[in-house]
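Re: [help] complex structure
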Amino acid sequence: MERINVGLIGFGTIGSGVVKLLEDSRGIIRERVGAEIVLKKIADKDTERDRGVEIESGLLTQDVSEIIDDPEIAIVIELVGGVDAARKFILKAIEKGKSVVTANKALLSACGGEIFEKAVKSGVDVGFEASVGGGIPVIKALKEGLVANRINSIYGIINGTANYILSEMTHEGGRFEDILKKAQKKGYAEADPTYDVEGIDTAHKLAIMINIAYGASIKYEDIYTEGINGVTSLDIAFAKEFGYRIKLLAIAKEVNGRIEARVHPTMIPADSMLAAVEGVYNAVHISGSAVGSVILYGKGAGMMPTASAVVADVIDICRNIKKGISGRVSPLSYLQENISSIDLREIEDLEVPYYIRFSAIDKPGVLSKISGVLGNHNISISSVIQKDRKIGEVVPVVIVTHQAKERELLAALNDIDKMDVILEKTKYLRIEEKLGSDS
Amino acid sequence: MERINVGLIGFGTIGSGVVKLLEDSRGIIRERVGAEIVLKKIADKDTERDRGVEIESGLLTQDVSEIIDDPEIAIVIELVGGVDAARKFILKAIEKGKSVVTANKALLSACGGEIFEKAVKSGVDVGFEASVGGGIPVIKALKEGLVANRINSIYGIINGTANYILSEMTHEGGRFEDILKKAQKKGYAEADPTYDVEGIDTAHKLAIMINIAYGASIKYEDIYTEGINGVTSLDIAFAKEFGYRIKLLAIAKEVNGRIEARVHPTMIPADSMLAAVEGVYNAVHISGSAVGSVILYGKGAGMMPTASAVVADVIDICRNIKKGISGRVSPLSYLQENISSIDLREIEDLEVPYYIRFSAIDKPGVLSKISGVLGNHNISISSVIQKDRKIGEVVPVVIVTHQAKERELLAALNDIDKMDVILEKTKYLRIEEKLGSDS
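Output below.
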């Protein structure tokens, strides 16, 4: 039986999962692929720590070059994370004619273009299923399963930490800060949760999906990104009252031939499938020109789900190696020469319904003033909630609008926030009434 | 640009969708695959009918051999349906060295083994993504995306007609027969709905998924199959009361090293993701050893969703042709020599909670008698509902049991149905409390 040697760089949680899964699935891989995948070397700075998985002595090294310079190693799995070192390792491995598997969304959304181009030139493959949605085969769906479709839209819940926090705020109640602490205790949020709660991790993943869907070369900085750190329990409660749930969504849409890309807390109908995605689960709702709506759901993170995606990529590449080929499917499922830079739509051009929460002094005529300004900016009101009447005190006035232009909304709020009766900066959230083409 | 010739056998609804999609996605295919897929010939008995898609004159023939014998045609798409003719066409095409794409689940679940073996020997590929779940890339997920996993269980809502009828019964109310008629009027059910309502179509698709998941060669007749024609609005109502929904499920599970395979109306928790799959939508819940629960959701039928899967397969094969290879992934994702026949678990060995509805004369002591017999057969009761007390008349007595053995249940019901106070054959439905490993 053919033996294919693999080297692993990065022996952290996911790395340990990969080592375990390569061992566990040895039999399955033999039966399904007809090959023996041999983990020949693991490189990690820390060669002492016990990861709870057994490895042969001599397998672990601190020296990455023992992997990259080993001509017998055909596939390098990069799981160090971060951008600079990972980029260097991957580019070197590609130079040496090795295929690469990575889960590194930060890297790919920053310099995927460089890596993919080099891989195609060197005649090697790059697998990155694990970079979006953990074990959910969403990259493969975009690159292969839905290949005959133009992608009309993508809506993703692709950050488990943010979704866990919003789910807890919705069902258990509580403030963002407290639930974040709980999430950190449970291991659902990292000590530094910035990437997760500020939407950056979600933007990384969205950039990757957009580049596949549209043969593009955008970077995550190009994407309008807003996190969940501003979502209050008041907004969560009002969302429920209007029949919505608040989710941190990654959104990509083709609108009049241009691509809209944004990450922000979004109100979606409470009875939509995505609203039912709770806790650390992920889901991606893809609308294709032929297929209509497809939703892929599962665990978007964690040791074994992520390892499942990494090893699937390794097996994919092994199947190529067994046939003596590479580049059967281009990294982004578009031939490299057809990758083009695209201009994303400005967020000010967005046109959706909005949820707006004013902190206003409760006195007669306030609502009339607010709605007057909105009207001047062509924003029409769908419904209003003003509870807890306390004449002379500050109360939340909540308005849901019909479809409106973000540019107009911002201008209106600028005017409104100057009013004497408005005591805090007005808060707004975007609403998506329809997810996908037909749901 | 490389041109790859394709022949289509069967110009019905799906065939027309494929013709349309090949035309619509010409640009995408060029950009993604770097090839021109040319539809060289279409064979259909009916060369007159207008399908609403434009084709060049001379493209349509009644003579299948114009496709099968044309050495320039590399891929044959079989969409005639049925078993005998389709089998003949496919085997001949394979003999002639052509790869094949089919949506024919009846055929594959009856003689997939023969077709796959021949394809491997002849060095061609067989694509059948469209045979299960329409446009949802579930076959690719099982064969590739989740390849590193042992499959613990599969739960599928994979017949849109049956799901539409059950959804309507649940939300709109009404009798099975009336809603079936409505479904037929809307085009959601065929004139002869046997395959759909009796669960046969679901069993076809389950057989295909099992053969991929376990490298097996079972046929659909091996699967215990029960349709939805016996589901009454009374059962639908009681299900709701107990916090369940009734769905026609395809179930495969590994239990103590053996595979359990069954198709039947099933009560599942109302708050599970599968319970939210309404109307003609399909969903497949796969539990893998590493990945945990993954759910794939979308349109399981219809012209364009099915065409999306067919053309994805065609493109997959084109990507192989461009690289000069075939058989990169075996038809069932197991090497042909590792396909083994498996003995499915007997339905009598099943152990699940049951919903049991007795038609009993309402008189004191009836419940005690019934529960006595159940107790004698080691069946313990979780809850009981007996409504509409009408002494001396027939009332439904509904019992939900704890986990019980089907063999014991059948023996108990056999005893109970002999009682004087029981006026109709007792009805039971199986309950699945937990779908997947972790949901």
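The longest strand of chain A covers residues 244-255.
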